Amino acid sequence: MLTFSLRRPFSGPPIAFLILSLLLVAGACRSSQAPPPLTAVPTELSFPERARRDLEALASAKPPAPSGIDALPANVRDELQNQPWFGEESPAHLQLLTDFLFQASQNLAGVRPEWPYSSRIEGNRVVNQPFGEERELKIIDRRLFDFLERGDERIIVVFSSDDIDLQRGQIQPVMDRVRFFLPAIEDLIGHPYGFNYLHIQLKKAGDAVDPSYERGSNAFLDFPGSLGPNFDTVLVHELAHAYASMLPRDGHPWLLEGVAELVASILTGRTTGYAVAASYEPLPVDPALGRVPLFSRNYQAQSGNGSVFFADLLKAIGRDRVSAVLAAIHSDPFRREADIFDIIRAQTPPEQAEAVAAILDKWINGANLAKPPR
Ligand SMILES: [Zn+2]
Questions:
Q1: How many angstroms separate the alpha carbon of residue 273 from the centre of ligand 1?
Q2: Which of 70, 330, 346, 357 is deepest in the core (most CB within 10 A)?
């Protein structure tokens, strides 16, 4: 747990003194109290009972947990209040910002994916941590955040980095892309983004094994010096993963990565490249098959298969019907992954029924499923 240097001063007599005096009163009375007459109907608590009740109430009374800006560590709060823009932000924006900063500082090991946290890869391991004060001070001082509002939605987008000394000017083009692509993703998937937060952690591009990934409201992205189409594709792919909690819980990598590649290909005209690793084997839908380790060869191959499957489907039924399929498969995490095939059949117009049946037969049963020559 994080401890706060600020404690609300307790106003009034010291608690210890009150408890002691109540104990003395209660004890003294209990010894001299005569047993109540049997016929009496008590209309109120006896003095010792009241004393005990008050003592218990006092002992259980804690100052209410601080919230809003008071919940922040003193130096983070001071930094925030000292910003020239502090007085100009709307109460709703300040509330969102302080909630974000507080929850980011509490999210030990990133156990709450809908809350912000920082993350890095060590070897083949993802190491998650709460935000430290240094990270929070930089976010405030350089204003590494912005807001995205659409209808009733209000999202705070916050940028941070472990290895880049981020400046406001660097994040602006990324923010512009989020502002452009997130609503487009919402429209395509047919559901609003599921969180009030979006934390984008940028890391220096170029390491040999340095994948971008996403979990809950956190996207971890390679950040090349100049932004171009590849960055957009990775950004859209990762933002599509923010919808993963709406997908069937028995979903395999072919569904999770296939959907993200499908969304990226429709909105940016490119994919991140899983298709290259496709093994052209039938798509597994048995929940008993268990999980494929992240970053493993099998994960890549299966994700590639999903990517090619959805590309086949897009070609056959087009963007609008694919959008309807996406909306349906993101509607209930307790449905089965295999339901997507029924959803696809239901969305297929009669003139495409044969072509879609062939695609499904290929990817479910392996009929005519062969790796194309390169
Ligand atoms: Zn992915």
A1: 10
A2: 330
